[in-house]
Amino acid sequence: MHKATESASNSRRPACSAGDKSLVVENLRKEYTRGKPVLKNINLTVAGQCTTAIIGPSGTGKSTLLRCINRLIEPTSGRILVSGQDICTLRGADLRAARRRIGMVFQEYNLVERLSVMENVLCGRLGYISPWRAWLRKFPQQDIERAYDLLDMVGLTEFARARADELSGGQRQRVGIARAVMQQPHILLADEPTSSLDPKTSVEIMELLREVASVNDIPVLVNIHDVTLGRRFADRVVGMSKGDVVFDGVPGDLTDEHLKLIYGGEDWLA
Amino acid sequence: MSTATVARPAPFAVNWWARFGYLLAVLYCLYALSILDISWDRLLAGLDNGARFLGAMFPPEFKRWKLLIDNLLESLQIALISSLFGVLISLPVGLCASRNLMPDWLTWPARAFIAVCRSFHPVIFAILFVKAVGFGPLAGILTLIFASIGFVAKLFAEAIEEISLKPVEAARAAGAPFLSVLSFAVLPQVLNRFIGFSTYQVDSNLRNSTMIGIVGAGGIGGTLAAAFQRFDYSFVCAILLAIIALIMVSEYVAVRVKGVFQ
Amino acid sequence: MSAERIWQRFTPAERMARFVVFLVAGILLAWSFRTVEIIPEFLMDAPEQVADLFKRMWPVDYAYYERGVHAVLIETLHIATVGTIMTLGIAIPVGIMAASNVCRVPALNWLATFILVSSRSVNTLVWALLFVAVFGPGTLAGTVTIAVRSIGFVGKLFGEALEESAPGPIEALRAAGAPWISVFLKGYWPQVSPAFWGIALFRWDINVRESSVIGLVGAGGIGMALDEALNLFHWDRVALILVCIFAVVVIAEVFVTHIRKRII
Which of B157, B257, C128, C183 could form a disulfide with C145 if both were Cys (CB 3.0 to 4.6 A apart)? Predict the structure, then answer.
């Protein structure tokens, strides 16, 4: 524990310079049942084009943390600042406007299977247009142009009219990423984006996420249970255990000692 | 030589429960038939009667075809109008009744309303509406609107409860307003089934619209009941043939329309 | 890439087909609204009339239950049950004839389909009118009505279940030289029996509803009591009968859902 907190406060921080697009989590606490916190006291700042990997055992609150950030789950206490705005106090239309600035990529892609790839990508604009226009599928021309550009980027242009359920897992996750970027977010959250994919595709998706971070100049926060993959692609690793941050530093500093602290036991390291 | 006498378990276990059940069913039938005063003699007398009845029905008489067509068209109108309103009302009611999207205080009254619509046979609604708004197609339309809600809204609510909530989560995370979440993440998942229920209900409304006239709620049923009362069985036969033809045409159309919407 | 990339949800052909469907539906509805004979005053008056109806229904005449409702309520349940059992006896052979994998004679398939379609196409109340004319008013007409009307439903679903059964065990039995009846009893029946009992229960549930109204045209059961109360304008008794029907229907549905869960 000692060592970890030491390295968490270590000055050796990755190149995550503060930009105007940032996420600050202060003293975040979440209890589903009273007195049993899932997240105890999370403090986290991400900014710049930095890719941050959150690692930790299942059930330690990684998913809850990400969902608290865009308030799909209500935090119990604490503050969350997205580009300087506290989103914990927002309601209704203000909350929706804040959510537009937070892109999210899901483990199981969360596409609408019966809609076309194009419609799924345009889903990312739903926060910007009225329900009436959404119903009639009357998206502004620049949105459609942008959607095509994003499909070019993820290499799925020829699938624009295909239905989402015709795609493979990796292709679906690319659509999921395109949808998140479509929001023009200030920050991108990815909840286990590679857990349902094979190793090769996982690597491609992680590369894509890094590319998104640099092209759009936004920080990316990735939950990942694959430590090797996290180490390889992240500029910064945050280790969580039992609702607490127990490691925060560059991947190079992550030792077996830290991993033992995060995951417990040691047999699996051999 | 003792092996020959070793008792092996019977190869097939005798299902005493099933046998007991069948026995019970037979005994019940005998009891119920005596209660209902149904006997072989009456059945045979009825069959004899039925033969004469069939004789009186054929050949069907189409001399009053104008009356027939008029009333048939009225049935069709009742079915169409009631389907329109029934389906339109079923959309919000079914949505309100779906427990995965809506809060309890809204699903509860919606489900109770659907249960009442479903529990009563359309004829009972028809009687009440005939008393309320008088004889004629209006009573029939109101009747079938309620019947439609009972069926379509219930199945629609069930369909919504079976959807995957993942796209809903994604749309909400993108900051979509509730109505956009519905049109992008919910409706695409249930639209096909909703169209299926609706076309089925149009068909069902058409069948029922030929019947509710018996209690005075408009359509061909009234003519049919009148023909029965006048023992005009050849006209009854004509009416029945016309009804069957109308329903067959509507089934064909329903299949084609479903094809358009996949 | 081209200057402006457009995207539309449907192809032109799909849009055309949808447009035609909507157009035809619109024309039919417009025609219906224009020609249907509705007196607007009656519609305006309706809420008042319904309120008046409820006022006259209240308080419900519970005292009448013993005297006038209990017996016919039980009779209704008997009609539904016996009618359903009679249906099963007829629907099994008809369903077998309709299943083209079991019965390979096209003429019999057609005959079965004809029986099923005509049973379903004619409404219960119309069947009831017919059988009241044949057997005279009373429970016999009602029971036969329920039985005949249910054949279409049970036979159709049973036939479909048979057609969906796996061919493997059937082939094995045929290969062993089993006679037709053994093939059916040991090959098909075990596969479809849960579905069959499910269908029978489901139909019984429907029949409880139907048997509660066929009395309106004289075919026995609680509907006859309802008819009488309506004709005499005993609205408090009408209310009682409606409450009883509602209760029985709800109990039947709960009962059936419960048993179906255990069968399937």
Answer: C128
Q: What is the extent of the structural domain holding B235?
A: 65-260
Which amino acid belongs to residue A195?
S
Q: What angle do CA A48, A50, A51 make, to 5 degrees?
A: 145
* Enclosing H/E stretch for A27: strand A22-33
Q: Which amino acid is at B28?
A: Y
Give the pLDDT confidence of C156-207 residue by residue, as tens digits.
899 888 888 888 888 888 888 778 788 888 888 888 888 888 888 889 988 9
Could you tell me which of C241, C85, C95 has the C-alpha nearest to residue B38?
Answer: C85
**Closest chain B residue by Cα to residue A68:** B173
- Any idea which residue has 């059916």 for tokens? C184
Buried b / exposed e across B137-162, counting CB within 10 Å, b at 16+? bbbbbbbbbbbbbbbbbbbbbebbee
CATH number reported for the structural domain that contains residue B178 in this entry: 1.10.3720.10
Task: Verify whether the Cβ–Cβ distance C7 to A141 is below 8 Å.
Answer: no
Structure tokens of C241? 């009968």
Phi, psi of A191, rounded to the nearest 5 degrees: -100, 100
The length of chain B in residues reads: 262
Rounded to an integer, what distance in angstroms lies between the CA atom of residue A179 and that of residue A118?
9
Asked if C181 reaches chain A (Cβ–Cβ under 8 Å), the answer is no
Please give the angle made by the CA atoms of A13, A15 and A19, to the nearest 5 degrees.
110
Q: Does A16 touch chain C (CB under 8 A)?
A: no
Cβ of residue B136 closer than 8 Å to a chain C Cβ = yes
On the question of pLDDT at A11 being above 50, the answer is: no
Cβ contact C221:C79 at 8 Å: yes
At A18 the pLDDT is 52
Q: What is the pLDDT of residue A89?
A: 86
Whether residue B29 and residue C82 make contact (CB cut-off 8 A), yes or no, is yes
Residue of C nearest to B30 (CA): C82
Q: CATH code for C61-263?
A: 1.10.3720.10
Flag whether B140 is in a domain: yes
Instruction: Determine contact: C18 vs chain B, CB below 8 A.
Output: yes
Cβ C72 vs Cβ C66: under 8 Å: no
Is the distance from CB of C198 to CB of C264 less than 8 angstroms? yes
C36 touches chain B (CB under 8 A): yes
Kindly list the residues from chain A whose CB atom is less than 8 angstroms away from the CB atom of residue C13. Answer: none
Separation in Å, CA of A97 to nearest CA in chain B: 6
Burial of A73 (0-12, 13-18, 19+ CB in 10 A): middle
Is C82 within 8 Å of B38 when comparing Cβ atoms? yes
Which one of B40, B57, B119, B198 would you mutate to disrupt binding with C, by most C Cβ within 10 Å of its Cβ?
B119
The mean pLDDT of chain A is 85
Q: Which residues have C-beta within 8 Å of that of residue A85, sequence separation ≥ 6? A: A98
Burial annotation A157-169 (CB, 10 A radius, 16+ → b, else e): eebbeebbeebee
Domains of chain A, with CATH numbers? 1-101+187-262 (3.40.50.300), 113-184 (no CATH)
Q: What's the residue count for chain C?
A: 264
